[in-house]
Each structure stands twice: as C-alpha cells, then as structure tokens.
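lol forgot to send this yesterday, sorry. struct tokens for the thing we talked abt
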C-alpha cells in the first residue's frame, strides 16, 4: 500500500510511506530513530573504516537539504536502516546512501529496495545512479547483482587509500527532457 509518494520529480513527500509487503515498509525518516541508526551505522563498514562517528552520521540524516529524500527502512515495525535519494541528478536519481542494519541483511531487503527505487526512478530519468567505495567489495557485488555497472572511477574522493566507483543502472527508454535538468 502506498500513501502519497516518497519520491517524485518535485522532491520528497513529508508523510508518505510504501508498504513493500512481508513486513518491509519505507517511510519518512523519523527524528526518534536517527540517534540509534547513526550509532549502528558507525559500527558498520564502510563507515567504521572511514572513521565516521555517530554524531556526524546523525547530522547527515538531520541537516536540512531540500534536494535529499531521507527514507527509513522498517522491517517488522522496527528501524532496519535508511536510504537517501537525490531525485534530480544526472538524467536520473542518485542513491546517495543505503544502509541496512544487520537484521535486514541477507534477506533480499536490499534487492527489494533497489527494485522499488528503480520503479520510482523510471519516471525521473534514464538512469539510476549510486556510488560505492573500492574498499567495499561486498557492496560493489550487491550493486552488480542488482543491475548496476561501473560508469566512472573517482580517485581518492573520500579517502586517500580508496576510489569511489560511480555506478549506473540503465532504466530503459526514457527520453531526456526539460524535467531531467534542474
């Protein structure tokens, strides 16, 4: 069941949610979940290896940014992660961040989220974009399994010992138009 639209060309809805079934619900990230999410993220790769602290991650999720859709992942009524999407990027949306907590990993939750996002993104451009650190082979393999291919390598963008890989999933026959450009 969908209430409103979490992501569209105009941006992000404040009080929308999508029930993907099987206890998986995507909705607006709530302030009460941010501290716990940030603490859990700081203990996970790649954020742990990059030295991110919970306070910095909480700030990322809370800072005002009209171009970012911050979406909570709920599994069986509990916070199980979050994602941040920029709907208007390079002829398609950019999945800026996807974090699934351990209780949501290895169950197909990530694949379902990517499929949901690709469906929403199809009306926003010809591509769905994301990036992954070259030091995170598990995430890179996940995105490859979900139809993403490397489009560019950005040397030492975040850390001096790693490159960022810009990945693209082509979404089909979308014809670029005025709506694809800010």
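and heres what i got for the seq, position by position
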């Amino acid at each position: 069941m969908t209430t409103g639209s979490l992501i569209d060309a105009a941006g992000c809805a404040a009080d929308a949610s999508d029930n993907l079934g099987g206890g998986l619900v995507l909705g607006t990230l709530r302030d009460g979940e941010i501290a716990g999410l940030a603490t859990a993220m700081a203990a996970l790769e790649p954020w742990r290896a990059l030295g991110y602290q919970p306070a910095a991650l909480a700030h990322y999720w809370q800072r005002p940014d009209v171009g970012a859709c911050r979406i909570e992942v709920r599994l069986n009524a509990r916070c199980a992660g979050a994602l941040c999407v920029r709907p208007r990027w390079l002829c398609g949306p950019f999945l800026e961040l996807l974090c699934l907590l351990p209780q949501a990993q290895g169950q197909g939750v990530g694949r379902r989220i990517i499929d949901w996002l690709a469906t929403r993104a199809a009306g926003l451009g010809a591509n769905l974009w994301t990036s992954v650190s070259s030091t995170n082979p598990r995430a890179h393999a996940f995105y490859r399994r979900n139809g993403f291919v490397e489009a560019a390598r950005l040397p030492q963008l975040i850390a001096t010992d790693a490159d960022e890989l810009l990945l693209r999933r082509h979404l089909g026959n979308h014809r670029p138009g005025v709506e694809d450009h800010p």
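Residues 178-182 have pLDDT under 50 and may be disordered. anyway ping me if u want another try
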